[in-house]
Amino acid sequence: MNHADVKKHLADYLEGDLALEERALVDAHLDHCDACSREVEEMLQTIRLLRTLPEPELPPMIAANVMRRIRAGESEPRFMQRVSRAVQSILEPTFVLPASAIAVAALVVTVTQGTVTQGTGTQGAGTQGIGTQGIGTQGIGTRKTLTQRIGTQRIGTQGSPTGRNAGQGAEVMASAIPSLMAANANSGRDFQDSRGGGRGLPARLAPRTIRLRVDGSGVARLSMSRRPVSQQPDESSRLVGNPRFTSAVPDEWAAQFARVMYGDQASLARGTLVAADPSTVRASEGLVQSVALSRTFSQDRILADLASDGADPRDAWLALGFEDPAEFARYIASQNLAEQELWAARLSQRAEERGLLDEFLKTLRESGDVTAGWVAGDFEAQSSARSLREPSVSAGEPPLR
Amino acid sequence: MSAHVWDALDALSPSLRMPVILYDIEGLAYGEVAKVLGIAEGTVKSRIHRARRALRENLKELLGKSPAEDV
């Protein structure tokens, strides 16, 4: 067996899938070939590194939801077993999330159709309230800076606390504040990711090249939990952003999704679903969701981007929390589960960096709003998880107070 | 250490990252990964291998430091 043969069989060799005979031949080659045996060695080490990574710990919100489903008889044997083992201690069955929260869009999913409320988006809540009360008194930043932050498109289109950068051109999340979107003349239909770098062209220009992704559960679940825009003209929420699939979405799914999200006039670019087979939706939902939680991919990159001009949109969201805990909590709760976790992680981290976490949690809890209380618990859980992972608090930004 | 590994995973393209995470970290079988991602089992296998090779490149320094005896 020569180098090429070994390379060809390497994957199977590493997995122990080679027949005994072939395995012996590879072993014989490795015995006298330093290069190949080093490669095998390194591959094995790589695999071991991967396999010793801690499995993502399921946060309480997810755990509760999963357990709720188990009780409802929606078992997905293998995943659920593992999950149930992991969550026994933190089971909290009374934690019921809004139906829309079950529309889990996964790691790859990123079309969060920002259903955003007017409360978060109006100028009143967005700038004045935050500028005067939330920030002015809590010391997150100056009014001017904050107003600038809030007033920019950055927050609307790419500054969501959970916004993920498309480092690989693959995952872009659009979460938007309606009034800002309107101000930017980006209607939902041709919402454009404004991030520099040329990604995220308007769908109508490049329908087949957009790299946003949605998975099957997103489509299937959203259709159950959201009404068409046309049926809720007076409601305070509306949808922005345009889901664009990477390829091969069944037409009927795309059409259905478009109708649900945008009403009858909507059109939608076509693309790929991660789990195109509806029968796998539930399995992939749970699994991919758990993967999503194991790491906020590209989070660091986003932070770096944000840092480049000194603006951190998380401050604006924290300010909203101080200003109107119930509204803040309602917004968080309107996200899908994975997103909720990311919000909790990102915002609690920011609050901590600013030395404001305790005060923030207190504000949420004392608001008397039930959802705000849940959110506070979740923020706290994220914070404790973080302190376990990173005992030393990063010496990033000192408190402003 | 695991932060490095995650960074390396993060650097992979999603089409490589997903299979290797589901397989090596989540512990799914090939068939399950295939089902979840909607791709063929053979594709899963080859992507996992490619992902590991890429990771190996990215983690070279780390690998050097790992204790060799427990391979």
Could you characterize the architecture of this molecule?
The complex is a heterodimer of chains A (401) and B (71). Chain A is an all-alpha fold and 401 residues long. Chain A is 55% helix and 1% strand. Mean pLDDT of chain A is 49; it is low at 56-249, 256-309 and 393-401. The radius of gyration of chain B is 13 Å and the shape is elongated. Helices cover 76% and strands 0% of the residues of chain B. Chain B has a single domain, classed as Arc Repressor Mutant, subunit A, CATH 1.10.10. With 71 residues, chain B is mostly helical. Chain B is built from five helices and no strands.
Give a brief rundown of this model.
The complex is a heterodimer of chains A (401) and B (71). By secondary structure, chain A is an all-alpha fold.
Describe the secondary structure blueprint for this structure:
The complex is a heterodimer of chains A (401) and B (71).
Chain A: H1 3-15, H2 20-32, H3 34-52, H4 60-71, H5 77-87, E1 115-117, H6 118-121, H7 123-138, H8 143-151, H9 153-158, H10 178-183, H11 216-225, E2 237-239, H12 251-262, H13 281-294, H14 299-307, H15 313-323, H16 325-333, H17 337-353, H18 357-366, H19 370-389
Antiparallel strand pairs in A: 1-2
Chain B: H1 2-11, H2 14-25, H3 30-37, H4 41-58, H5 60-65
Helix pairs in contact in B: 2-3, 2-4, 3-4
